[in-house]
Amino acid sequence: MMVRVKLFATLREGRDKDRVYELMDGARVIDVVNMLNIRLDDVKILLLNGQDADFDVQLKDGDVLSIFPPVGGG
Amino acid sequence: MEPNKKGGKFMFGYRGTILRVNLTTGEIKKEALDKELAKKFIGGRGLATKLYYDEVGANIEPFDEKNKLFIVTGPLTGTPAPTGGRYMVVTKSPLTGTIACSNSGGFFGAELKSAGYDVIIIEGKAKNPVYISIEDDKVEIKDASHLWGKVVSETTDELKKVSKEKARVLCIGPAGEKLSKIAAVINDYDRAAGRSGVGAVMGSKNLKAIVVKGTGKVDIHDEDNLKRVVQDCIKKIRDNGVTGQGLPTYGTAVLVNIINENGVFPTNNFKEAYFEKADNISGETMTDKYLIRKNPCYRCPIACGRWVKIEPLNMEAGGPEYETLWAFGADCGVDDIQAIFVANHLCNEYGLDTISAGATIAAAMELYEKGFIKDDEVGGIPLKFGNKEAIIEWTKKMGLREGLGDKLAEGSYRLCEMYGAPELSMSVKKQELPAYDPRAIQGHGLEYATSNRGGCHVRGYMISPEILGLPEKLDRHSIENKAEWVKVFQDLTAVIDSLGLCLFTSFALGAEDYAKLLNATCGFDYDKDSILEAGDRIYTLERMFNLEAGIDPSQDTLPKRLLEEPIPEGPSKGHVNRLSELLPKYYEVRGWDEKGIPTKEKLQKLGL
To answer: Which of these, A4, A8, A72, A27, lies nearest to B470 by C-alpha position?
Structure first.
């Protein structure tokens, strides 16, 4: 299955900011985070198709996963 | 109490002196600050609202000569407390008719405290343009005829030349002189007390600027204890992901992508909530391509301010905040970050609030698109969504009140009303909403509707729990417990605004930290609960002011679009704000009756 992964802020350093990956069926969010060598502590917000998600959610073909470190402002 | 050298009182944390300047008579007085009142209302926003309400009342016309303008610091302004450089401008707003209190950073606030004053009260109206010069005890009203009409950088340069080295300048630009209802007060070139039209009240008094130089210092009740508390707070700020990494690296602009990815990034005057080209105007893009250096305020360990290369003007200057990138960007459908840099710089020069200026142009674009504004009114600069030339040229015309810019200078509500379409103004209590679509952030919508200064995100920043997960993650679509959360956030914000600290510290610090900072500085005995109660007191006082000013609780609402038209596309498609379900609970949590009026018992409990 194909999943689009978007990275933001410091997570972009040394990684593609927006890329589609071919993943094994049954892959979860945590598998993507591990595959990209992102430390779990560096992940603050996970959005799956724009809605809050967590590491255990199973991905499906066509999903868009957005991964953010801690960010804020106003 | 020993009198201080100015005739005020010696006080820890405060300088004990109010400076009263009457521009009609030219009289300058120094008065003692009431210590008990200061303790009860803390300082800054709280103290000035109390003083203003008692002296002026709520029924003054904002541009009446009898209206007064308060420039006020907090007890932590000018102390070693992290971000302790903030000050407030308090008056009655010509934009909203509510109490106005606009906060700014930079260095002016701390300098005013060094000069020996907690509050400046400006009364009356000068016959000709003037500025106020303050060098410690020496206070003079001086002619500013030669500065009238000049932009902020020219005014500031000129006044720095004739004043003591390192003097700090607060001033208005042409927008304030011309009584634009969205005019800001600007200090240190690019820091703005931006919202609610406070710059126009200053302009109505023929007051162009205040220049201040001080050599004194704030007396601290317990220096050793404060040092420990400050070290602890700085550590918390540095260790926190937002204040220690996100904001220092990318500035507030880091929000562009996360707000957009949630599908709550208002686009084309809130018609949509997802901006396809958001990354072009993001903090990541600004940092990677155009950031020259950080541009921090007084004693700030965060340093979110930006200094950028503005290519079309071939210059370097202060860069835009998140709200500004949104207002001139997505809200106007523009994805050219350099055009936004220019519009932001023009707002700083003309002295305009960037949120209201950008959002008013966005509203004008919808008026034009729908045929209300005709081609013969736009002078060859079509108000089309996505037109980068429009955001620059119409900002100039708004700042100078030229042509249709004269109507834009009144803000989006009055503009849309003139064309018979007030529902196209995305505002609350006539003040433009900022950069978060409340249709899919329920608590934040309640915050907009109940903000005491009209449409505003920094009266109780519910984005923090509902989007950013701080201090914990709430479901943004749920209405459960949101009334309680909004109240706590609003009360805590009132405290921070009164202390003289930056709201961004609250990503890392809590009520207990603020109480410790205040107690070590002033020798008070606040704790977590009593400091939040002080925030409640301040919030409720502002509410009482607004009610007396004729701001009916029916105005605790949102634009019809956000209550009735679901978000059409994107990750938050299909949602509207459920305000009618949230508001009754909020009134109850506040101790207000079902009509939204604070009960006698509540007022008594708060000592009001």
So the answer is: A72
Would you list the DSSP string of B516-571?
Answer: HHHHHHH-----HHHHHHHHHHHHHHHHHHHHHTT--GGGS---HHHHHS---SST
Q: Residue holding tokens 């200094």?
A: B307
Q: Which residues of B touch A48 (CB under 8 A)?
A: none
The Cα of B256 is separated from the nearest Cα of chain A by a number of Å equal to 10
Interchain pair B242, A10: CB under 8 A: no
**What was the pLDDT predicted at A72?**
85
- Strand ranges for B366-472 from DSSP E: 427-428, 431-432
Kindly state whether B237 is in contact with chain A, defined as any CB-CB distance less than 8 angstroms: no
The pairing of strands B130-135 and B207-213 is parallel
Q: Find residues 563-592 of chain B whose CB sits inside 8 Å of chain A.
A: 570-572
Among A49, A51, A69, whose Cβ lies nearest the Cβ of B246?
A: A69
Domains of chain A as residue ranges with CATH: 2-68 (3.10.20.30)
| Cβ of residue A13 closer than 8 Å to a chain B Cβ | no
ipTM of predicted assembly, 2 dp: 0.95
Q: Are B154 and B138 in contact (CB under 8 A)?
A: no
Q: How far apart are CA B286 and CA B105, in angstroms?
A: 22
Residue B374, number of CB atoms within 10 A of its CB: 9
How far is it between the farthest Cα atoms of chain A? 39
Query: CB distance from B303 to chain A under 8 Å?
Result: no
User: Distance between CA B288 and CA B392 in Å, rounded?
Assistant: 24
State yes or no: pLDDT of B118 exceeds 50: yes
* Mean pLDDT to the nearest integer, B514-542: 98
Answer yes or no: do B323 and A74 touch at CB < 8 A: yes
Q: Is the dihedral of CA A47, A49, A54, A58 positive or negative?
A: negative
Choose the mutation target among B264, B277, B468, B470 for the interface with A, i.e. most A CBs under 10 Å.
B468
| A52/B contact by beta carbon, under 8 A | yes
B241 touches chain A (CB under 8 A): yes
Q: For B17-49, what is each residue's pLDDT tens digit?
A: 999 999 999 999 999 999 999 999 999 999 999
Start-end of H helices in B151-254: 152-162, 174-177, 198-204, 223-239, 241, 247-250
